[in-house]
Amino acid sequence: MRHTLHTFNLHQPQADMPEANQHGQRRWVHQLLAQARTAIWPGILGLLVVLAMSLTFAQVVQDSVDQSALRHKAIAKQAMVVWRCNTLLNHDLSLSCHQQLKAAGGERMLPPQPLQASLD
What is d(CA 19, CA 46) in angstroms, rounded to the nearest whole number? Predict the structure, then answer.
C-alpha cells in the first residue's frame, strides 16, 4: 500500500496583501479538511464493518448455543419416552409403545404419549 504524505506550509501574513493572504489561508484550511475527510472515512467504514462482523458472529454463536440447548432437551425427552416404553408392566403395551416409537421415526421423533398417566 502506497502512502503519500502531504505537507502544508503556513505563510506569514504580509501587511501589504491581506486579502491574498486570507484567500491562501482559506484554501489551506479547505485542503486540510479535505485531507482529513479522505483519511477519516475509510477508517470509519472499516470500524463499521468490523462492528457488523462482530455482531453477526455473536448472533451466530448465540443461535448455535440455543440450538444445542433445544437438541439436548429433545434428546432428554426422547430418552424419557423410551424409558416409559421400557417400564410399562404390560408386555403388549410396551411392545405397542415401541412400535409407535419406531413408526414415528425411530429415535429421531417423539411418539404419541402412552395412554397411561405421564410422569411429567
Answer: 41
Give 81-90 contacts, CB < 8 A, sequence gap 24+. Answer: 81/110, 81/111, 82/107, 84/114, 84/118, 84/119, 85/111, 85/114, 88/114, 88/116
Q: Extract the C-alpha cell encoding 85.
A: 416404553
pTM for the structure as a whole = 0.47
Distance separating alpha carbons of residues 20 and 8, to the nearest angstrom:
17
pLDDT in tens, 22-77: 777 888 888 877 777 777 778 888 999 999 999 999 999 999 999 999 999 989 98
